[in-house]
Amino acid sequence: MSHLDTVPLWAAIPAALLVLLGSGLTLLGTIGLVRLNGFYDRLHAPTLGTSWGTLGIVLASVILFSTLEHRPVLHDVLIGLFVTVTTPVTLMLLGRAALHRDRAEQAPGVPPAMLHPPTSEQVPLEQSP
Amino acid sequence: MSRLVPHPFLTLGLVLIWLMLTRFSLGHLLLGMLVAVIAGWAMSALQPERPRLRRGSAIPRLLGIVAWDILRSNAAVAWLILTGSRGGTRRSGFLHVPLRLRHPSALAVLAIIVTATPGTAWLEYDQESGVLLLHVFDLVDKAQWLDLIQNRYEARLLEIFE
């Protein structure tokens, strides 16, 4: 509590708003993850948390700790940078795994494989015993 | 100089990150430079295909556009989730986007942009035909999304890289 008492109001208000924005978007992302139908739709919801969800919380942290310690505290920005740069890796992995499964199961509405040269991805799974 | 620091931007970036993670002091500057130079050698041992910047001055503008688009699409997707997908009328779908970009670094940047923008998900990219398969959360108008990827992002990346 002693720390928070020393935060001036002009820093506390934007920090609080940004925390609310960031955590609110992250919460919406998780709600979407539960409520949406289908894998590909659900893939979109958590990106709320990895984009402005993270950014809002990180910016609030920068504002709060820069005013508390009377020096620019910027290392939180790196969290945002690394989250942004590494999210595509997970997302593509999940997306391609889902495509592979749906094509193997010949699920309706999934575009056919277009990768050249033809790889094992196009071999249907039913061949396995 | 180029033998000691084969990747000047990487090395400079690593020094900056080191200073951000620690404190701005002479000792940490020297230590960070040592680490960054060694990391630069390690990077050149991997022999990556070097990205060549043609017009670096276009980068800030692209960053600004992307930041604004991310904010806008955050609001759009959050609204769709809150309203229960516009009362169930929202339709998502797959979209094939033919790309002219070929440079791996430029494609990586495009992947980060597409992923960071809620509402679009990069699913797969075929290197030979250069076609990208996207999944779009709110696919109202296909032409509009094609225009967004090809003209708003890809054209600017083509300007920056190669």
UniProtKB/TrEMBL annotation, chain A:
Keywords: Membrane, Transmembrane, Transmembrane helix. The chain crosses the membrane at residues 12-36, 48-68, 74-94. Residues 105-129 are annotated as: Disordered. Residues 119-129 have a biased composition (Polar residues). One of its GO terms (molecular function) is sodium:proton antiporter activity. Pfam families: PhaG_MnhG_YufB. This is Cation:proton antiporter. It comes from Rubellimicrobium roseum.
Automatic annotation (TrEMBL), chain B:
This is Na+/H+ antiporter subunit E. One of its GO terms (cellular component) is plasma membrane. Keywords: Cell membrane, Membrane, Transmembrane, Transmembrane helix. Pfam families: MNHE (PF01899). The chain crosses the membrane at residues 12-42. Belongs to the CPA3 antiporters (TC 2.A.63) subunit E family. It is a multi-pass membrane protein. InterPro entries: Cation_antiport_E. NCBIfam families: PRK08965.1-4. PANTHER family: NA(+)/H(+) ANTIPORTER SUBUNIT E1 (PTHR34584), NA(+)_H(+) ANTIPORTER SUBUNIT E1 (PTHR34584:SF1). It is found in: Cell membrane. It comes from the Bacteria. One of its GO terms (molecular function) is monoatomic cation transmembrane transporter activity.
